[in-house]
Specification:
This is DUF2237 domain-containing protein. It comes from Photobacterium rosenbergii. It holds the Pfam family DUF2237. InterPro entries: DUF2237 (IPR018714). The protein has about 120 residues and is α+β, with helices and mostly antiparallel strands. It is about 20% helix and about 10% strand. The protein contains three helices and two strands; from the N terminus they run E-H-E-H-H. The protein has a two-stranded antiparallel ribbon with strand order 1-2.
């Protein structure tokens, strides 16, 4: 792990390794210029969010074994695109976030006070 910073100013914490998440599939919600989606929000996915994102064309609940994806279930931690999380917020179904695992670049799209309102970890 590179010494990335989270939205609270501390070291970026692991989001999840089972299933392994992140743009780089290393368990961390971090990004670089090759990640057009900005997969920087570590979320605790909910059934409501999974239905929302499926309706938007990104089905995260259906297994896709051909690419090694087992599908997500409510309660799984997953690195979401910051813009998709913001869209879910506007639709009233944003899943809770784990602040220590959200990369600081999240703040370019979502204000810290909004993230804190949806946090499951200490803030």
């Amino acid at each position: 792990m590179t010494g990335k910073i989270n939205v609270l100013g501390g070291p970026l914490a692991l989001c999840n390794c089972s299933p392994t998440t992140g743009f780089f599939r290393d368990g961390y919600c971090r990004t670089d210029d090759s990640d057009a989606g900005r997969h920087v929000v570590c979320a605790l996915v909910t059934e409501e969010f999974l239905a929302f994102t499926k309706a938007q064309g990104n089905d995260l609940s259906t297994p896709r074994p051909e690419i090694g994806f087992l599908g997500l279930a409510p309660g799984d931690r997953w690195c979401l695109c910051a813009q998709r999380w913001k869209e879910a917020l506007q639709a009233g179904c944003a899943p809770p976030v784990i602040l220590a695992s959200c990369e600081v670049t999240t703040l370019d799209i979502i204000p810290i006070d909004v993230l804190k309102q949806h946090a499951v970890d200490a803030h």
